[in-house]
Design a protein that fits this description.
Shape: elongated
Distance between the termini: 73 Å
Number of strands: 18
Low-confidence stretches: none
CATH class of the largest domain: Alpha Beta
CATH superfamily of the largest domain: P-loop containing nucleotide triphosphate hydrolases
Number of domains: 3
Mean pLDDT: 89
CATH architecture of the largest domain: 3-Layer(aba) Sandwich
Radius of gyration: 28 Å
Largest sheet: 5 strands, parallel
Strand content: 15-25%
Strand order of the largest sheet: 11-14-17-10-18
CATH topology of the largest domain: Rossmann fold
Oligomer: single chain
Structural class: alpha/beta
């Protein structure tokens, strides 16, 4: 007897269809799994046998050959357990042989008792199953909310093997999973710019960064609020769109950090790894490549505190993902690509002791020490950081005075959303222009503008051009820095509601790169 059941595998954040084919013949009983399985898949034989017997079913006394097709693609992980068990029980007659399995996909790990355990990447698998024309998806209860996000699929939360067999035989049908409405929650509750005293110039820089998706470097003495400000940046970012939420959920699902019972991720990620991390931890890697911190921060913020303390190999590995918005990991057994469209926020001291340039606290570093400390940040990486702003020490009067309450994150966020809407409408108009020949696909904010889009949307007026020319010659800026200044100026103009880039917009954008001249 031959049976075929559909399941899915994972490559990067994309799923691919796999067919579990089971052949049961009357020869001496044996059980072989073929189709390029890894150790976890080969070990599934013992889990399946124990799950069947502990569910009070008889394991087929036959020569079982189970093939995972396509046989030339590596099968990794325990998510194939449920499909393999279903194929065996269907071939052995435990599941009615008249049952139509052609529109069903199965994903889940089996325990020895026959209950189902959650697996990683279910959202990606369910999307692949829908795209392949399947209509029903069977998975563990903890993964059901995640799979239910996919439109056009009927999801069944399967508690154990007995419930699955009873459902497929038409005895006790399972009810389709119905996602409970999620309660609206305030993202990043407790983190508000209203808590930060002073630092109005830095807050303005972070508002510009949020409105345009620009990378930021905060530099200043210890205790001035660099980390406090950086952690509040997500509170002024616009909400995730459905497409962005889907991408973030896929990455978190594949990484195994999606909490059980979670559907879509609704808040922007904020990742803050320690400076002792390795380059593979940042960009992703491993024998079976998994997403790194830059992919876990996709559509969110990656915060690197004490930037010079990170190893040079770690910081330099950021350069390509910052440009390409994706990272490709190549290993001997394959190559995967993960998205990495994140907003980079870095914080650092001006020297090793932290007090270089401080108005009252003397610096104990020598000139060579300061140069050595700052040289840990390469010019090419600095070029990719659009906004570089100093965070000065506050005076006693600024800290102790009650004064006027600081502006809240909610008020700043309204301006950011308005500026993003202006930018998106401009890009939409360019995409719909029948006479236009500039591709805008993948461009979501001003920080992503391509050189051709910069020439079209970032044309400074005469006064702005003169300021930019003077800054370019005096500061020794690169061509990349020139483009990034124009992108930031475009964002400042959007915040002002201006169609044109004027001298004040360019002047402010240049001032936000003043660290090029002062430190480097």
């Amino acid at each position: 007897m031959l049976s075929a059941v559909f399941c899915a595998g994972i490559s990067g954040i994309d799923g691919f269809m796999v067919t579990a084919e089971c052949s049961a013949t009357g020869a001496l009983p044996c059980f072989e799994v073929v189709g390029l399985p890894d150790a976890a898949v080969r070990e599934s034989k013992e889990r399946i046998r124990a799950a069947v017997e502990n569910s009070a079913f008889r394991f087929p006394e036959a020569a079982l050959t189970l093939n995972l097709a396509p046989a030339d693609r590596k099968k990794e992980g325990s998510s194939y357990d449920l499909a393999m068990l279903t194929a065996i029980l269907h071939a052995g007659g435990v599941i009615d042989r008249e049952t139509d399995l052609s529109d069903k996909c199965f994903s889940g790990e089996l325990s020895l008792s026959g209950t189902l355990r959650p697996v990683r990447g279910v959202l990606c698998m369910c999307v692949a199953a829908r795209d392949a024309g399947l209509r029903e998806f069977y998975t563990a209860p903890e993964n059901a909310a995640e799979a239910a996000v996919v439109e056009g699929m009927t999801v069944y939360a399967v508690p154990d093997v007995r419930a699955l067999v009873s459902h497929l035989n038409g005895e006790t049908p399972l009810s389709p999973y119905a996602a409970e409405p999620e309660e609206e929650s305030e993202p990043f509750a407790g983190l508000d710019f209203a808590d930060v005293k002073g630092q109005e110039r830095v807050k303005r820089a972070l508002e510009i960064a949020a409105a345009g998706g620009h990378n930021v470097l905060l530099i200043g003495p210890p205790g001035t609020g660099k980390s406090m400000l950086a952690k509040r940046l997500p509170s002024i970012l616009p909400p995730l769109s459905f497409e962005e939420s889907l991408e973030v959920t896929k990455v978190h699902s594949v990484s195994g950090i999606l909490p059980p019972g979670t559907g879509l991720v609704k808040t922007r990620p904020f990742r803050s790894p320690h400076h002792t991390m390795s380059a593979p931890s940042l960009v992703g890697g491993g024998k079976i490549p998994t997403p790194g911190e830059i992919s876990l921060a996709h559509n969110g913020v990656l915060f690197l505190d004490e930037l010079p303390e990170f190893s040079k190999s770690v910081t330099e590995s950021l350069r390509q993902p910052l440009e390409d918005r994706r990272v490709t990991i190549t290993r001997a057994n394959g190559r995967v690509t993960y998205p990495s469209s994140f907003q980079l926020v870095c914080a650092m001291n001006p020297c090793r002791c932290g007090y270089y340039g401080h108005p009252t606290h003397p610096c104990t570093c020598s000139e060579s020490d300061i140069h050595k400390y700052l040289s840990k940040i390469s010019g090419p990486l600095l070029d990719r950081i659009d906004i570089q702003v100093e965070v000065p020490s506050l005076s006693y009067s600024e800290l102790a005075s009650g004064g006027k309450p600081a502006e809240s994150s909610a008020a700043i966020r309204e301006r950011v959303i308005k500026a993003r809407k202006i930018a998106s409408e401009r890009l939409a108009a360019a995409a719909d222009d029948p006479d236009g020949d500039i591709p805008v696909g993948g461009v979501r904010c001003n920080a992503d503008l391509t050189p051709r889009l910069i020439r079209r949307f970032c044309r400074p007026d005469e006064g702005a051009s003169r300021i930019l020319e003077g800054a370019f010659s005096k500061m020794g800026l690169s061509a990349r820095a020139y483009d990034r200044i124009l992108r930031v100026a475009r964002t400042i103009a959007d915040l002002d509601g201006s169609d044109d880039i004027g001298a004040p917009h360019v002047a402010e954008a240049v001032q936000l790169r003043s660290l090029d001249r002062k430190y480097w």
